[in-house]
Design a protein that fits this description.
The chain contains 13 helices and no strands. It has 330 residues and is mainly α. The two termini are 42 Å apart.
């Protein structure tokens, strides 16, 4: 007989998140990954990747600009955003995320303005110097934006999220990198003269998607071992969104397209665009499926009690740092 609670009521309160959280955890990590890819392209290819670098830097600013209102809207009051920035707490995912988003937006804005000025005034020394300096902190904070979002979920008590903290971190991070590379590639392929470095974007998107698929397999194994995979199984809309959107559309289809293009002497632009669009759609639907599945997992007494009786998995870095601080205070 499965474990239950008195009167079948949930033992945990589900997260009160609406559509803003999936959008926030999609837009800002993809923007951060785009900034990182743009910096790598600038260093590795220079002028051959000028259009990619430009789109990456402007897209990063756009993502940061959208992320602020989405986060404030989820907090329900701007005062909470201000309070998050008053004190930095290394053990709080919300504090880390607020500081990351703020610093990422500031560095990306300076970099985009300097990039714009350097393109409009050939030979200008100051804008080029600002670009050379600002691209480093923008890339570092962009990398942080790409991978931190999973900690918002794995630091909670929702069984589906807490059962596989490391796998979800890799899953969300690799998905952000794949979506950023796919988005940049899609814009390049849609243009009249794609950059010669576009093929490298498809390679990055394919490698990151393969990593995402591997993390999905590992996460599913952890969920089965902990007995909390229920919300992502069966005929429910959440399970269908995850299986069809995240796995089939977001991983298997683009990997097949990338493999076909890699085997051809002249890659197909249509296949590249199809793969890029699939990666972008699948990345967003993956977040919707995991977030909704975690909320449903909290509402299922069978999941929360089974997970509690078996114990949490080995703690991640955030939990270990929290324990270390607690021991130091004692």
């Amino acid at each position: 007989m499965p474990p239950t609670t008195y009167y079948g009521q949930p033992a945990l309160k589900p997260a009160p998140w609406d559509w803003k959280v999936p959008v926030y955890t999609f837009v800002t990590p993809v923007a951060g990954a785009a900034q990182l890819i743009g910096t790598i392209a600038d260093l590795a290819a220079g002028e051959r990747a000028a259009s990619i670098v430009r789109r990456a830097r402007y897209g990063a600013v756009l993502g940061a600009a959208l992320g602020g209102p989405l986060l404030i809207g989820d907090l329900h009051t701007p005062a909470r955003w201000y309070n998050m920035l008053r004190i930095f707490r290394a053990t709080s995912p919300m504090s880390i995320g607020s500081w990351l988003l703020t610093s990422f937006g500031a560095f990306s804005s300076v970099l985009a303005l300097a990039h714009y000025a350097s393109e409009r005034s050939a030979g200008a020394g100051l804008p080029r110097l600002l670009v050379a300096v600002a691209r480093w902190p923008a890339a570092v904070t962009g990398a942080g934006m790409s991978f931190y979002s999973a900690s918002l979920f794995t630091a909670t008590s929702s069984p589906l999220w807490a059962a596989a903290p490391r796998s979800l971190s890799v899953k969300f991070g690799s998905s952000a990198v794949a979506a950023a590379a796919a988005g940049l590639s899609l814009f390049e392929q849609a243009g009249a003269r794609p950059s010669p470095a576009t093929a490298a974007l498809d390679g990055i998107a394919g490698a990151a998607t393969a990593m995402n698929l591997g993390a999905s397999v590992v996460a599913a194994r952890h969920w089965r071992e902990q007995g909390v995979k229920g919300p992502l199984e069966g005929p429910s809309a959440t399970a269908a969104s995850y299986r069809i959107g995240a796995i089939l559309l977001g991983q298997l289809l683009p990997l097949a397209c990338y493999a076909i293009n890699a085997s051809r002497a002249k890659p197909s632009r249509a296949l590249s665009m199809l793969a890029s669009a699939s990666v972008l759609c699948g990345s967003y639907l993956m977040r919707v499926g995991v977030i909704e599945g975690g909320k449903h997992s909290s509402e299922r007494p069978v999941d929360s009690l089974r997970f509690a009786s078996r114990g949490r998995p080995e703690p991640g870095p955030l939990a270990r740092s929290r324990r270390a601080i607690g021991r130091a205070e004692d």
